[in-house]
Amino acid sequence: MTNYTEGPSDKDLDPQAADKNSENDPHSGDGADQRRSNRVNILCRMKIFHPSFGEKHVNVRDVSDEGVYLLLDVTTLPSMGSVMQGQVQGLLEHAPLLSLKIVRYDEDGVGLLLVDDVE
Q1: Do 103 and 114 contact (CB within 8 A), yes or no?
Q2: Which of 51, 71, 89, 94 is a plausible cystine mate for 109, CB 3.0–4.6 Å?
Q3: What residue segments make up the domains of the chain, in order of their start?
Q4: How far is CA 31 from the centre of its chain?
Q5: pLDDT of 33-61, one tens digit each?
Q6: CA 101, CA 106: separation in Å to the nearest integer?
Q7: Rounded to whole angstroms, how far apart are CA atoms 117 and 70?
Q8: Residue 12: exposed, middle, or buried by beta-carbon count in 10 A (0-12, 13-18, 19+)?
Q9: pTM for the full model?
Q10: 38-115 maps to which CATH number?
């Protein structure tokens, strides 16, 4: 079995933790928590695709009915609002290809919203 990363830290599990977005970071959102559904902490792998970087395999920190949070170096990602494709890895069945819109950056990774179609 492959060990991908350590699980979420205590600060990741604290719903009262302050958003770490920087006002000077061009990737940052407005810092407001806009979730409408609960997150589930999970550790799995996802393959993401975008013309700006090709294909990457990354770790998932948490998921919800509306999106996913990926742990990765955000300096190689496209700008806020860009849409990429993603596919969960390691399932027993073939996972669907998902369209994911970048809605949040922070020092640990990126928050992606599930969208119906590539815009």
Answers
A1: no
A2: 71
A3: 38-115
A4: 16
A5: 555 667 788 889 999 999 999 999 999 99
A6: 15
A7: 20
A8: middle
A9: 0.67
A10: 2.40.10.220
Structure tokens at 79: 């700008």
Cα–Cα distances (Å) from 1 to 4, 95, 117, in that order, read 9, 20, 34
Residues in the chain: 119
Q: Which two tokens stand for residue 65?
A: 């009915």
Query: Distance (Å, rounded) from C-alpha 113 to C-alpha 59?
Result: 16
Q: How far apart are CA 103 and CA 67, in angstroms?
A: 10
The residue among 18, 58, 13, 19 whose CA lies nearest residue 40 is 13
Say what percent of the chain tops pLDDT 90: 51
